[in-house]
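Thread: "does anyone have the structure for this chain?"

Original post by V.I.:
We have the sequence but no experimental structure in hand. Need at least a predicted one for the grant figures.
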Amino acid sequence: MRSMNIIDSWGQACLVINQSLPYKSFNGMMKINLKNRRILKQTLPCRPFSSVTVSATTREDEKDVKEEEGAKMENEFNFKVYVVEKAISVNKALDEAIMVRDPPMIHEAMRYSLLAGGKRVRPMLCLAACDLVGGNQGNAMAAACAVEMIHTMSLIHDDLPCMDDDDLRRGKPTNHKVYGEDVAVLAGDALLAFAFEYLATATIGVSPSRILVAVAELAKSVGTEGLVAGQVADLACTGNPNVGLEMLEFIHIHKTAALLEASVVIGAILGGGADEEVDKLRRFARCIGLLFQVVDDILDVTKSSEELGKTAGKDLAVDKTTYPKLLGLEKAKEFAAELNGEAKQQLAAFDSHKAAPLIALADYIAYRQN
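Reply from O.Q.:
Generated one for you, tokens below.
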């Protein structure tokens, strides 16, 4: 599926950058009717074992049936194995990307949060999208590391006293609790800067024009059209009882979904995806990006701090507007199910075997417990 029909020159590259979907309420863009909600059926294909009865068959027939069933089991996508393999690869790449050198304190602070664990959802999405359009892991590994560096930066800064003021992240004291607020700010800044350097210089087997578009996509997801916009709106709306659903969607489409969207889109660009493939994957990613936040809001009111690895009930304590608060817990769960179904519909045109990791990642985001 490799296609170079769009990013072979600067002019064409600019066209691709400008194809980014503008923000619109999900109620309009994704045709999700919040007043008459329906739970979309999952599109993950169900491949049951053979229903052939063996009451009148010979032992040879029984052997053939068992071999056929065994082959089907081998072809089933094993998400747990996939997650472990990708996490090992990503963690190794992250460890090698940022080594302790002078001045040691800042590099130690960067590594403290970057290597503190985490689900590595964004890197996995990046690698899976690259593979889906015909690329390989090497094409997108630097990008996978870059999005995780930026995600870690956002967590370090989000936990600061001037922001969400949190003491716990991934089951460990937050960066500023260990290194101080000044070093924590600088560690986040350093991760942000190095993410772009690493994407630009460590990507292999990809044309410069595609790398250029990937850099632009990542930058847009972090700035005033992405994460920063969502964070500012979130701060402004905290404690405001009049925040409605449209503003809540704006916050999370930018604050949470933008980097998830960029992870998928960048993977597809670096993997050689055609413009129509990138567009479908962008829509898939925007759905699961919002889904991630809806589920996060649900977990905040249903799980303990020990289960989450971060402070539970924090949104309620600071009077943040959340999906359970606006819709109620059950309606929020229904909305999550709809987003999951809509995301999977965007993958219907792709090879089902190659799409399996993204389908499984969507389900993981939908049904995660922390």
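V.I.: this helps a lot. Confidence is low (pLDDT under 50) at residues 1-24, 26-63, 65-74.
O.Q.: and The longest helix spans residues 275-302.
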